[in-house]
């Protein structure tokens, strides 16, 4: 137990450290690219990634999660899954190249065809990384995973910026993506000592198929649910509005990618090892939600307040229409930062079947919400998606608490307290903004953020809510 607790804490430390560096790097890279490229360039890539992201689900096929969750997996399973992934990767690369004209025709954007063909190479590259990532994750070697990801982001970003300076336009974003996957693949093989054997066992594939099939099915419907807005906006509103929507959505995803997903990535293998102890799993899960919300709730609220200054200073005037989108998505991001963690519980408990059924229902409802929102343009879509996310998260929490056999009020109390702790910060920030001239954007942004940090930190200390017992005590 002590070893598992130490590995979990070390994993959280390394994952948090790497995600911090990645976020700072991505923020700088995106800000530079946003000034060098147009919203249309980001919109074109957004159109392409709707389809490439969907196809990439089939390249992984839930194998990684199945190998991590299955405590009896051995080299026979790893090698068989590796060769299956290679074959699937080649098939998807060639197949997507042949389908590129159809996708370009769907959007009526001929320039998309070569972009899609180039991005399809990512399917082949990622096929070499899936098993290495699964093994390092199962071993909880998040230090190696961190080095691979951070290096890939930085090198890919530098390549993208270089091409953007040379006038490559949307292709700079394509080269950035390809470079990241290539560098990440090379480094994963360097850090992982496992090498595939020239063996293939259908029995081994069947051992992990039930879990991986449910994971894949969920990923398909979940991807559709998360990208139907991109698909419909690109089709009916065009590249300009899709580019604006993409930037706003990415900013909303910041707490999910840098906090929620970081914790979930570490906690999944840890919780899988104690999956038979439901009270312990539930206890750890509530602590995880408390830790996430104590950061994401104030982060989203302060972004809501400083959105005009933030966009002006970081991205420039051409991105002003994104301000209202960001403010709408702040409420969505706040709730999704905690609700997205339910998947960790479903998978750790081996209930990927429940996750799939819920994903299917959620995809249907979210699609309906986006279609209704389109009647009021881009802002209608953002409002409709946010309303769906707020309502749907309550249902997913109810199902999760039932699986853990825990009272819902325990979760509700924990999250409500975290939200109330943000009230003094919000009040002080609004007072500060009213006292500074609107045209002094940079001063307004810096002062408001400093006040937010100071007031929130003082509130945490006063309420005695931030304790390091989760690190010092029985986390696992």
Describe what you observe in this structure.
With 476 residues, the protein is mainly α. It has a domain of 173 residues. The protein is 84% helix and 0% strand. It is built from 21 helices and no strands. Helix 16 packs antiparallel against helix 17. 47% of the residues are buried.
Structure summary:
With 476 residues, the protein is mainly α. It has helices at residues 2-36, 39-60, 63-69, 75-107, 112-119, 121-127, 130-138, 142-165, 171-191, 202-236, 239-252, 254-273, 278-314, 322-339, 342-348, 352-373, 377-404, 408-420, 423-435, 441-463, 469-472.
Topology:
Elements: H1 2-36, H2 39-60, H3 63-69, H4 75-107, H5 112-119, H6 121-127, H7 130-138, H8 142-165, H9 171-191, H10 202-236, H11 239-252, H12 254-273, H13 278-314, H14 322-339, H15 342-348, H16 352-373, H17 377-404, H18 408-420, H19 423-435, H20 441-463, H21 469-472
Helix pairs in contact: 1-8, 1-12, 2-4, 2-5, 2-6, 2-10, 2-11, 3-7, 3-10, 4-5, 4-6, 4-10, 6-9, 8-9, 10-16, 11-14, 12-13, 12-14, 12-15, 13-14, 13-18, 13-19, 13-20, 14-17, 16-17, 19-20
